[in-house]
């Protein structure tokens, strides 16, 4: 019989570098899992080194931790331990100097001391059981690289220069839209914009940003590309006003969000109320944070009542008609080959973003890299007619490399997979270090991408192709044809 963990031994593991919890008679090592915990690292650290059975059972089913974590996370059984929950958060170390952060994974841990519990939950939360959130990222680990050797990779010096939506940029990595940046850092989206301007990288600005477009873009180089993410308002006049402001401020594309007709259920965010005095505005959307209601206090849900859930394919012509020549129309949130084909066939859409809202809308939706593989298998022609971008689960330069290779269809054509979006990582960097943190985070990703390219024997994005990635581990998960129907749907049609 395995040795039991004593309360004294358990109490020694109470920091981000070694984080153990006793839950329902078993001890778990959550050190590796903690940075991606949907409720944030802070709540785990509040109970680290203790028996957390009581607070855990209040909000989770007993089986969740056993089924969600790998067996290696379960250490052994524990003695009966009941320690008081600390009233202050004293386990987090002092924020380390920015220069010491060398991995994208360093930023969440480093940001925690600077963030409120609400901000931490807002960044980390995802829909219901967070399965899609985790799958988005974990799928990349099942794709393996196939490096080529003995190739001169000493040149060129700027291998990442490309275009996204016909805009020259220094990197194929772009900033996905994120809301309410001011709850994370006082400068919010303005700090992100300055970082992107300094690095000549593209930023997508949310309708639910904490500042107006003119405030966000006033400090930028005019050649720096910015895109607007649009939630269509139930009052269409409000959306027309937002688009007009975007065009006036030089926005190069409007990305209409199509994967969230209603807000998703983000339980970690629902559980933590907005503190008094912590309210923030979303001036473009015309909303403000609220304390919450009887269902909880998730910012996206409480503030998202203006979103038009009647918006449909027939309304794309209205949006397109508001855009002057040169401003692209993009659908953000395409999750099937069938919808990619339909977007192409409208003749109105210039590009699509394969996205599931970072797993924040519909849980158990398909991981985005699988959707990209579905497009390659079922409708490769869309890459010749529209620009295809992707986000969701991208945490490393190797992830960016794999997405670009699998969107390239042999070689990167004039219309191909041009950009890979990152969101949560940028918010962690913003929360901990402001503009400087965002710049360092993006620089790390760019450096990792260049290293991966050279290790695989390529020196420019045009050389990327699917043959550099082995997808056999996930190929069986990809549909065989566009619009593949479930047998029940076929049966129901036969009965009508």
UniProtKB/TrEMBL annotation:
Residue ranges of domain Cytochrome b5 heme-binding in the record: 2-63
Signal peptide range in chain numbering: none
Entry keywords, A to Z: Oxidoreductase
Pfam families per record: Cyt-b5, FMN_dh
Coiled-coil ranges per UniProt: none
SMART domains cross-referenced by the UniProt entry: Cyt-b5
Keyword Secreted: no
Domain FMN hydroxy acid dehydrogenase: from-to ranges: 96-474
InterPro entries per UniProt: Aldolase_TIM, Cyt_B5-like_heme/steroid-bd, Cyt_B5-like_heme/steroid_sf, FMN-dep_DH, FMN_HAD
Cofactor(s) it depends on: FMN
The keyword Cytoplasm is annotated on this UniProt entry: no
Transmembrane segment boundaries: none
UniProt name for this protein: Cytochrome b2, mitochondrial
UniProt organism field: Podospora comata
